[in-house]
Amino acid sequence: MKKIIVLLAVITTMCSAMNCYTAPAKAIEAVTYTEYNQQKQNEKEFPDPDATYKEVTENDLVFHVYDDYAFLYDCKDHSVTEVTIPDSVQGVQVIGAVDSPFGFCRNLTTITLPDTFQYFDWFDLSCTTIVRLGSTDSDPVPSVSEIVVSETNPYYTVYNGMLYSKDMKTLVGCPPAMDIKQLRISSETERIGDYAFCCTKLETAVIPSNIKHINNSAFAGCENLVSVEIPESITSISGDMFYLCESLSEVTFNGKLERIGYGAFNECNSLTNFVIPETVNCIGANAFENSGCIENENGVHYIDKWVVGSDDDIRTAKLKDNTVGIAELSFFGKRKLEFLDIPESVKYIGDLVFTGLTGVQSTINYRCSYIGERTLVSAKTATDIYIYDSECEIFESEKTIPAVYKYSKSVDDFLQDITVTSLDDDIVTGDVVIHGYAGSTAQAYAEKYDRKFEVIEKESVSGDVNNDGKFNIADAVMLQKYLLNVPEIKLDNWKSADLCGDGRLDVFDLCMMKKMLISEK
Q: Is pLDDT of 215 > 50?
């Protein structure tokens, strides 16, 4: 790795190369951090970071030369305007590039690739925007406007100035300084690669319906991009897809969008009007961080009926009753959070929603109908978890609900000095207590995995004859069947159905119940 400290001007740093014959650029298309990490774990790093190589410099180009191949590593001439990458060095084929070799070549406009070249990350190849930390330079702008390949190149071709895989199925990248204001993509193309349009002059992107996949960060850093139209063929917005698109103000979905990836609209300051489609069932972490459409209510960040984040210093989070979803990591690292109340209206919950790390003791009121595999797995500071749905679906694993908690008594002092290495006298630990109704799935989980359990005494709800803690049409149906002497119908809580208060159940109570149901609509 380069022995310098660098800052990438417009991208996140979660990138590396991936092998593929028809589309050698990597193909990460993840929505959540969990998916991203799984893809990275399954990805074999190439070249092997432990493999032995020698460093060779020819014509100001620095290569790492291995036994059977070589990778372009650096360019010493920072004033160069055109570069032709050779097909070999010391008799060894040059097959790829690593670590943004042209990152300091601010005047570079044209790069010619050899026929042997196939392994690289598009951003690494086209990047001319690296600045040293502490540099007095103003923000650099990308300078590469042309990529050249020969007609005999077995891996790539250039069409309308942009680099494609040889079969045209993948748009690898658009030269970042190319003069393109409206999106132009071949009708043969099915995938847009990672960072494909990073830092271009692009203003409008109407993505054609032949596109089936858009990789992570495909439009990241398009600072002039104003409007985007997503075709019905795309149901997921990949991670960081529009990260740092500061001018983006209009996004149109023509299909049934289901998932919005982590950081997808992060730093989209001009995006003040955004409606999350009702078909969305998953939102990744920080998808809308610092975007213009966030509504902050009591420290909780909302877009429509979704929670998408929270303030760093939040202590109490009682979510709105009409909340339908909580994005991944929405309360990640909120070390001061003491109370989290999740209403039963919530249908979708991302991974690791509550991750206190080191912080104060906390309580979770959980009213919705399921707890996923990774919803609460990192709730390490939660001392008490109240589960109010008697039939809550709890993922079958001893890791789903932590067995013990661990938090700091003086969290404020701890936050002021994160270099402290010994806090043994300040750390409080103990068993997590699960609270639930007798006979509930919460109790069954606690008994199966040897968790402490305390019974919640049910409050009587008027009209709740089936004793499930709420009054709805199911209670009216059960009372009607009871009054008609339907076999095997028993009322678990008959007193709640005595709405007339005369000590008996009859048709008058049923009429009263129906009036109550109508009035609630």
A: yes
